[in-house]
Amino acid sequence: IVISEVQIGGDTADEEFVELYNPTDTPFDLTNWRLARKTGTTTSNLVNGFSISIQPHSYLLVAPTSQINGIAVDQVYTTTARVTSNNTIYLIDLDDVNIDTIGMGSATEFEDQATSSPENNTSVARVDVKFDSDNNFADFAILEIPTPQNSLTNQTTPTETPSPTPTPTQSPTPSPTSEPTAIPTPTSTILPSPTTEPLPTATPRTIGYFRFPNKTTTCSLVYENKKVLFLRFLLPKIKCS
Fold first, then answer.
1. How many Å is the Cα radius of gyration of the chain?
2. Could you give the residue ranges of the DSSP H alpha helices within the chain?
3. Is-contact 93 81, C-beta < 8 A?
4. Which of 110, 141, 148, 206 lies at a 20 to 30 A Cα distance from 121?
5. How do beta strands 123-126 and 2-7 pair?
6. In sequence order, which ranges of 85-189 are alpha helices (DSSP H)?
7. What is the pLDDT of residue 240?
8. Residue 125: how many CB atoms within 10 A of its CB?
9. Is 131 within the bounds of a domain?
10. Angstrom distance (rounded) from CA 32 to CA 42
11. Residues of the chain under the 50 pLDDT cut
12. pLDDT by residue (tens digit) across 21-65?
C-alpha cells in the first residue's frame, strides 16, 4: 500500500487529505493500521486505528471531515492532529512496521530525498501509483488542482496486453504429381523389299577366233548370274572352245 496524494490545506484548516492506493491484486485489511505525521521531532497519529479494507487497484481517502472537495471520505481522522508544511507522513501496519513514508519540504525524515511541500489548494501526488522507487523527490510532483479519490473511484486495474493471435499454420498444398511423359515406343521401320530388276539377257558375244595348227579356237564373252545377299548381278567371263 502506498501514499498516493497529500493536500495539507485549503480555504479552511480542515481542507486536507491523505490518499492511499493499493497497486496489488490482493485486498488488504487495514484494521488497526495507523496514519501518523511528524513535525520536527514530534510524531502524532492522524488515525489511531483504521477500521476498513482497501481493495485491489483501489484508492482510500483519509481526511479530518466526512467530505473533501465534494468527495466522500472513506476513513475520517480519529484525532485532532493535522498535516502542515514540512511534515513527514507515515503509514504503519498493526505490527508497527513502516509501510510507506513521504517527507515534504524541510522534513527531517523521508525516503531518500524529500519532495516539495505543497501550497494551500494544491497537492503533491505520486507520478505513477503503480510504482514506488523509495525516493520521494522522484516519485511525487506538485498538482495545481488536487484530485482526491476514494474507494468508489473507478479501479485502475492494469490493462492486460492481449496475447497476439497466433497466425494459423497453413497446411502445405500438395504439389501435383507430374505424370511421366510416355516415351514413344520406337516403331521399327520396315525397309522396303528391293525391287528385283530384271537381269540383262546374258547373250554371249564372240570376241575372237584363235587359229592353231589343226584347230581353231573361238572365244566368247559370256555372263554368269551372281547373288550377294539381296543383290543380283551378271559377272562377265571369257569362255573359249
1. 61
2. 136-139
3. no
4. 110
5. antiparallel
6. 136-139
7. 73
8. 21
9. yes
10. 21
11. 156-159
12. 999 999 999 999 999 999 999 999 999 999 999 999 999 999 999
